[in-house]
Each structure stands twice: as C-alpha cells, then as structure tokens.
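One such given next:

>
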Amino acid sequence: MDFICRTKDINVLWQKLKSNELKRSPNKKKINNMSYLYHGKLTAKAGHTAELANILLAASKLVSTAKGCKMYVIGKDPKDLNAVYATEMWDSKEDHDSSLKMEGVRDLISKAMLILETEPTKGQELEILGGVGV
C-alpha cells in the first residue's frame, strides 16, 4: 500500500527515530482506551480517485492543528484503483468528532460525497495499545 503523508511530518518522525526521542517520557500521557485510531476506506466513482485523495489531503491540512490530532494519513492500494484510505490517530474519539465540525471540513465532506461510488461504510475504530510514535 502506498501512503501519502505530509513531508514535514515524515521528516520530524525520521529525526525523532534517529535520535531515539520516541521513547515515552514519564510526563507523557499514558496510552489508554481514550486514545483513538480510525481507519476507513472510501471508494470513488471511476476516474475520481485522485480528486477524492486531494479532498482528503485538504482535510488533513485543516485538521492538522485540531485539538487531539496526532496523525492523518491518506493511502491507496494499487490493487483497488478506486479506493482511498484514511488513517487517523487522535487523543480521543471526542476530538475526532469535534474535527468534523471545523470550518471547511463539512464542505470537503460534501464534495467527497458527490464523487463516491457508494455511501461510506463505518470504518474501523481501534483502541491504541502502543507502538512507535505513540
């Protein structure tokens, strides 16, 4: 699967990995069931996959400063040409839900709905247990 991510974020993460800064500090929030990971698949109408990906990338820019947003990654599967995936990590589900009300986000959702092949199905909501970067 190919992933599209903000270059600045990748560079920051890479620098932290190299400097071993990703070890959890005692003051850092403990990972618990309040940490929220969402992984969803959207299927575009034929010929609209790039447009859908661009809409989701625009959404990533809007929510990048939202309270609790830790990650918003857009990806594609070369074997499923019309699918675009969004993987999001938030401090809480409430933070995620609040981001949907941000100025501009509703407009992007409306644009995306027009080019979807089917209505979006509920994605996976996962509890974060830990890992690199969390």
User: Anything to note?
Assistant: The radius of gyration is 16 Å. Residues 46 and 82 are 6 Å apart (CA to CA).
